[in-house]
């Protein structure tokens, strides 16, 4: 189904996870180190990167940052510890989602499909909200005439929120609609994504206009 | 209470010693003062009488007549009695005190005799002396005249009484001084004792850095030094034990983390094999399904171990968020396919600020325990007040094992030694308890009358203001 780049230093995991994802229909290429992963990513243009955080040489966080610097490719990180530190650092480095080892391939497959769906265009419609132009069909965003580059996840959060301007969506709702997580989804995924989104589309991210926080409930688009 | 008792005893002992000492000293000095004063008064009186008698006897003619006796009596001074055979001359009061024994003694000893008596009027000194006559050849012999006098010792007695009073006053003055000194001394002894007690209490309360200050070089200082030595040894042992425990817990954590890598491979392989199982021979299929199942159990065990080691190392943290508690419980049960098997008694509108994932673990473990160790029907009851959310899980099994009220929360606790394996990791209830405690709550196990075991988890509904 998808072109997956698996960056993982443990050969057994690389082999077994690659095999299992292959059985779910993905075309998996594997990289053993961060450096190799970055090189393959540039050469092969994978649709999804599955990234182990504990790597020899440059670690997963750094790989994540470098990938983000020149691409919006969805990144699912695999943390060995599931500790808050890893998760928060990984999300700050730009990861879209995370799973904890030992991960079940079917869960990883579901996450891969979910990230891919975020990039699927909606019926063509262009909306303008106070200088912010959302092209749902073309999957592009422009602010004051300038195009803004969003990752699929950021774009999907913006599209979900702007579908019903002025209405609050809880983190849980966003986790279910954008990340397709179950009821135990990690709300930090949403918060982190909103932060990055604001940095890109808000004039002053500290006092946001488009994506506003409703304390204790969630987020809402506008009113602008 | 002990030091106060000791203080009282010390003061009492001091006072007692002081009183005995003062009384003994006063008694001794009174005795000697009294003796010397009485002796002196006696000496003076007898010397006076001797002198007066001697002054008159030179002019006496023998045998003396009444007139001579009267002169002699006058010379001695009243009250006095002078006798010669049947003649006597007496003047003054108190002569009745002169007893026959005294007279006999004067006659027998041919010397001056005195005796102290206490009459109704007061102390009196009785003096009796024979008048000696010197013959021409120089020999001295009793002349047969006897002179008796009674002397009043009251002034002397008064002086003695005054000195006794002074002694008593001095003793009385010594008493408060003794008490003050006793308090000082008691303080000196008791302060270190109190410090010792306080330090021992601090040690017992877990403050292993507690030490005594060593002052001086007396027995108390030695005791303090010994105590400090003991405390240091204790601290070393406890440190060693804690280090060993921390090491072993870290070891468990490390091992669990290390297991994640091979488990990731096993999990992936198991899923591949499971997908192929239907195409395998029966033996291979059964082996495969066993391997898959055991891999899942192992994964669960390792995850629980890692979670437990987070609590042990104090790195378990709460991520509180607004939660609709009934929905969270339903989600938890639904995710495990238990929603239809549990009787849920819960109000719709309870919200709380909790860690969603930890609430899920708590409910899942309590309900899981009810199904594995109890019997259906399983009832989950949710209640809330302003402070707390209470989740009660009741089953209809045999109830808690004997003495298991607390032990069920122990890690890998097995009520029945023969039952070596169960569905869970053996850490479920321990984790439930830890998660409740992290929420400022608790889990209490008990028996529900008419049903089986009952577990009541309480969670603080909202975070405390200061956190």
Automatic annotation (TrEMBL), chain A:
Entry annotated with the keyword Magnesium: no
Pfam family, one: Trans_reg_C
Domain of life: Bacteria
Gene Ontology terms for molecular function: phosphorelay response regulator activity; transcription cis-regulatory region binding
Modified residues (4-aspartylphosphate): 52
Database matches in SMART domains: REC, Trans_reg_C
InterPro entries: CheY-like_superfamily, OmpR/PhoB-type_DNA-bd, Sig_transdc_resp-reg_receiver, WalR-like, WH-like_DNA-bd_sf
Any one GO BP annotation for this protein: regulation of DNA-templated transcription
Entry GO CC: cytosol; protein-DNA complex
PANTHER family in the cross-refs: DNA-BINDING DUAL MASTER TRANSCRIPTIONAL REGULATOR RPAA, REGULATOR OF RPOS
Name of the protein this chain belongs to: Response regulator transcription factor
Organism: Prauserella cavernicola
Taxon lineage: Bacteria, Bacillati, Actinomycetota, Actinomycetes, Pseudonocardiales
TrEMBL record, chain B:
Keywords from the UniProt entry: Kinase, Membrane, Phosphoprotein, Transferase, Transmembrane, Transmembrane helix, Two-component regulatory system
Top class in the EC scheme: transferase
Record domain HAMP: where: 187-239
Ranges of residues in domain Histidine kinase: 254-463
Reactions accelerated catalytically: ATP + protein L-histidine = ADP + protein N-phospho-L-histidine
Cross-referenced Pfam families: HAMP, HATPase_c, HisKA
Enzyme Commission no: 2.7.13.3
GO molecular function terms listed in the Swiss-Prot or TrEMBL record: phosphorelay sensor kinase activity
Name used for this protein in its record: histidine kinase
Native species: Prauserella cavernicola
